[in-house]
Design a protein that fits this description.
Radius of gyration: 24 Å
Helix content: 25-40%
Strand content: 15-25%
Number of helices: 18
Pfam family, one: CbiG_C
CATH class of the largest domain: Alpha Beta
Low-confidence stretches: 1-39, 167-192
Structural class: alpha/beta
Number of domains: 3
CATH topology of the largest domain: Aspartate Aminotransferase, domain 2
Shape: globular
Oligomer: single chain
Distance between the termini: 19 Å
CATH architecture of the largest domain: 3-Layer(aba) Sandwich
Organism: Kineosporia babensis
Mean pLDDT: 85
EC number: 2.6.1.-
Protein name: Aminotransferase
GO molecular function, one term: pyridoxal phosphate binding
Bound molecules: pyridoxal-5'-phosphate
Strand order of the largest sheet: 1-11-10-12-13-14-15-9
């Protein structure tokens, strides 16, 4: 299968992914040729887009990235973007075409109106005179629609497959805005992949092994939140919850800042800091890097190779900001506290993302501190915590930062007013009591047993390597077999949503992240994985 599209910027220099991996095993600048997985699947895809006026590039990329991901396709497969001619001044669409280095095709409304779209929308027809811009733009480009159209924050995306050999870009009427900037593709690729999250993989009818959040908050917590609704007339007051969290970590209250989830904590840090050399240790959760890039900082990556252990010597001496996850998403690796402490230096901010630490029984390697085990005195250490995972509160948005008061004040100064709402504050109070902490520890222990069961079941599947030891509520695996890149899609076709992990820097085709669920689900998944890794030969 050909892997090099016409718009290839030559980023791989003809080297194999293994050669590139070896070369960039240590340090790679984000703007360099780091990407291990720039190949497409060999398909030629036209992306039809309908969008609200003034839409932002991030929403357009997310919508397209999610649609591609759900169809098992890559950004590299895209050969053209098509929309209605009324969108000629939409900068986000121009920018998308530019960074993907593909033509942007503006089609007249009457050409689009003549297409028989499968999913017409009366609202779009009333506003634009076309029942579905996205679907019609694909059909008018002589491409065949794949799956359903996908909508994200006012952007609708339809994907179309161009028959092999058909010159789709010339086939239809309409003007093209051509990209002139070679090499811009890399940036698009990075941004799009940084924005991919497990929730984009979930769809009706699929068993969700993609999202790492506990199914639902416990009943008592749900009831407490319902009761707190009565007090919503008052503005949020984070003081009591801040005190409670400080006490739980054996720290003074000025070392705690409540945030709207760990995700907001990264944004605040990116706004408050002005790093000269920011280093991300990958593979890891991509939002910290996305936040730094969005704040205008350059990022340097240190990409670990399996088994993803850290050697402090890999970090450039002059790095003044280092970000690392523990336990790490998606590898599930739990680094030793001493290893992380060894990353600190005078003048360096060391951010340890402990979003999943409450899933580790006893939080053994945590640097957050507790009354029994005070936080180590590491200047520049900042710990990010989340309360959304183990408590099933992703929709509520609650987490916090632990660190030096002056840094937290700088973060707080960039936070929007009342960013942490009253229900989130109530949840933080509720899950910080000794009873709740004991419950969380019990949950972590049961989850660890379930994880061992999952790992055992996966170990039985030929041509699948599970990365171990795992410490988080998910495991990372690498599927082999005749077509590793197709395993994700075949699992979806069989009813299973897992998180494709090839979008994480440093990982490539066949890597998948699988959430820990109950034993019977894990057994059924292992059987489905076996089928997906060893598909029956096509007749
Ligand atoms: C490693 C890691 N850190 C932080 C977060 C942010 O979580 P939240 O914003 O829900 O607290 C996530 C979410 O997926 C994550 O995977």
């Amino acid at each position: 299968m050909s892997t090099t599209a016409a718009s290839d910027t030559g980023a791989t220099d003809g080297r194999s992914p293994e050669e590139i991996r070896d070369r960039y095993n240590t340090i790679g600048p984000i703007t360099g040729s780091l990407h291990l997985d720039l190949q497409g699947t060999g398909e030629q895809i036209v992306v039809g887009i309908g969008s609200r006026r003034g839409v932002g590039i991030r929403d357009v990329r997310m919508a397209m990235g999610q649609a591609l991901s759900m169809a098992g396709l890559r950004a590299r497969d895209v050969i053209a973007i098509a929309t209605v001619d009324a969108k000629q001044s939409e900068e986000a669409l121009l920018e998308l075409a530019d960074v993907l280095n593909v033509p942007l095709k503006f089609l007249p409304a009457d050409v689009l109106a003549g297409q028989q779209v499968p999913n017409p929308s009366p609202t779009t027809e009333r506003l634009v005179g076309v029942p579905s811009v996205a679907e019609a733009a694909v059909l008018a480009s002589d491409a065949q629609l794949i799956g359903n159209k996908h909508t994200y924050r006012g952007v609708t995306v339809a994907l179309g497959r161009v028959a092999q050999g058909a010159p789709a870009q010339q086939a239809s009427p309409g003007a093209y805005a051509m990209s002139t900037e070679p090499g811009a593709y890399d940036e698009a690729y990075i941004a799009e992949d940084l924005g991919h999250h497990g929730d984009a993989e979930v769809a009706p009818g699929l068993v969700d092994l993609a999202v790492n959040v506990r199914g639902a908050a416990p009943q008592w917590l749900q009831q407490r939140l319902r009761d707190a609704v009565a007090d919503l007339a008052a503005y949020p007051d984070p003081r009591a919850a801040t005190e409670a969290i400080a006490a739980r970590h054996g720290r003074p209250a000025d070392q705690v800042l409540l945030t709207a989830g760990g995700a907001e904590a990264f944004v605040l840090l990116a706004r408050a800091l002005a790093p000269h050399r920011a280093v991300m240790i990958h593979p890891q959760f991509t939002e910290p890097e996305a936040a730094l890039l969005a704040a205008g900082h350059e990022v340097q990556r240190v990409v670990l190779a399996p088994p993803f252990q850290i050697d402090p010597g890999m970090i450039p001496d002059d790095a003044d900001l280092v970000m690392v996850g523990n336990p790490t998403n998606p590898t599930s690796v739990l680094h030793r506290a001493e290893t992380l402490i060894a990353l600190s230096r005078p003048g360096r901010v060391l951010v340890v993302d402990e979003a999943f630490m409450d899933a580790v029984p006893g939080e053994s390697q945590s640097l957050a501190g507790s009354p029994q085990r005070p936080a180590p005195n590491v200047p520049g250490l900042v710990v990010v915590r989340s309360l959304t995972k183990s408590w099933g509160l992703a929709g509520l948005r609650i987490g916090y930062l632990l660190g030096a008061p002056e840094l937290l004040r700088a973060c707080a100064a960039t936070q929007s007013l009342w960013a942490v709402n009253s229900l989130a504050v109530e949840a933080a109070l509720a899950v910080t009591t000794p009873e709740a902490l004991a419950e969380a520890d019990g949950f972590a222990k049961r989850q660890a047993e379930a994880r061992e069961h999952l790992i055992g079941a996966l170990a039985e599947v030929p041509d699948v390597d599970v990365l171990g030891p795992a410490a988080a509520p998910f495991v990372l695996l690498r599927a082999g077999g005749p077509d590793p890149a197709g395993v994700h899609l075949r699992l979806r076709q069989a009813g299973w949503a897992v998180r494709r992990a090839d979008t994480f820097p440093g990982l490539g085709s066949g890597w998948l992240r699988v959430a820990v669920r109950d034993e019977s689900t894990s057994d059924q998944f292992a059987a489905a994985l076996n089928q997906a890794v060893h598909p029956a030969p096509q007749q």
